[in-house]
Each structure stands twice: as structure tokens, then as C-alpha cells.
Amino acid sequence: YPKNSSFEDKQKVSLFIVKDWYDCGHLNFPTESPADVHTNTSSLWQVSTQPQHDSSYVGMVVRDNGTYEAISQRLSDPLMAGSCYTISIYMSRSTTYISKSHLTQEDANYNQPAVLRIYGGPVYCNERELLVESIPIVNEEWINYTYKIKPKKDIKFLTLEAHHKMPLLVPYNGHILIDNISPIVKIACDN
After folding, report:
1. CA distances from 10 to 16, 55, 97, 168 (A)
2. Residues 6+ apart with CB under 8 A from 10
3. Cα–Cα nearest to 41, from 50, 32, 33, 28
4. Distance, CA of 184 to CA of 76 (rounded, Å)
């Protein structure tokens, strides 16, 4: 686990229905669009990045109105409180990600760096425990980021969330691209 870790599906615009993943956006921000599935044959939002693995990946944006996108899934095996794990995720950023600004209603480039937050919780899209917060993703090539996780409570669901870099003075338009998440592996806590 996680299942479908490369987000394999057909290109989807404002309709995030990917096997084994659940869109959280409509819960947090009902009027906003969900995350996008990008493929090796598309240039959705003028993003031409090729997948790191197989034929598709997910793009999640943060917006100038303070909203952001997130996805979630149930783990086949829960992460146990006090145990340690590692997870690796390929992330990238595109120089172009053109969409409408939610403040101005004009086309805008959502190319500013965003961060990835990984939360654990008892249900879908629950932000009970922050497990990982990445640095702002500035790289335009795929880089594999590895994180150590030590949950304080048992975790049944993971939520991946694009977020603005904090502290945040003014919300901005940005994004992250995510592909090829590794299996979550239990490790000795002294590693």
C-alpha cells in the first residue's frame, strides 16, 4: 500500500475519479474543482511533464483564494501508533499550469511552488495528524523524496494535500505533481 500509487487512469479534467483514491476537495471547498489526472499524451493546463512511472500522475493546485486540493485513501494495513515507517514519493513542478484565477477570473499561471502535506486519520480526508510536510517543490524534474513517519495514533487513512508554503502572507496560485508513491515500509525507529 498505498494502492494505485502511480494514479493510473485516463486524463480527467475537474473530475477526479481514480481507482483507490478519493477526492477531498468537495468536502473542504464544495465550489472548487478536484485534482487533475495528467497522462503521457496530454498537455492539460499546458503541463507537458511526462509521467515518472507508467502513463499518468496527479496534479494538485493551491489557489489565490486560499483553497487547495487533496486526495485520500484507506490503507490496507493501518499504521500503528509508536511504530516507524518510510514512504517515498516522486514530486515535480511544471513551469506552466494555466487555469483561471479564482479571484480575478482571468487566466493565471499556477506555477508557484507548493508543499505536500500527508495526514493520517480514522476516515477519508481527515487531518487529525500531520505525518509529513515537504519543502516547497521547486524542481522541474522528478525527484524522489523519502520521509520517515511515526504516528502518535493508529492510522487507517492517508490524505495527500497540496498546501501553500507557510507562513502565508498572501495566498498564491501554485501546484505540485505527484507520481509513483513507494510502499509504506515499517522500519526500526532508531534508523
Report:
1. 10, 9, 19, 34
2. 37, 39, 56
3. 50
4. 11
The pLDDT value given to residue 13: 59
Residue 77 confidence (pLDDT): 94
d(CA 13, CA 135): 27
pLDDT value of position 15: 57
Which pTM does this prediction carry? 0.93
| Number of CB atoms found within 10 A of residue 26's CB | 14
Per-residue HEC secondary structure of the chain comes to: CCCCCCCCCCCECCCCCCCCCEECHHHHCCCCCCCEEEECCCCHHHCCCCCCCCCEEEEEEECCCCCECEEEEEEEEEECCCCEEEEEEEEECCCCCEEECCCCCCEEECCEECEEEEEEECCCCCCCEEEEECCCCCCCCCEEEEEEECCCCCEEEEEEEEECCCCCCCCCCEEEEEECCCCCEEECCCC
Where the chain has pLDDT below 50, the residues are none
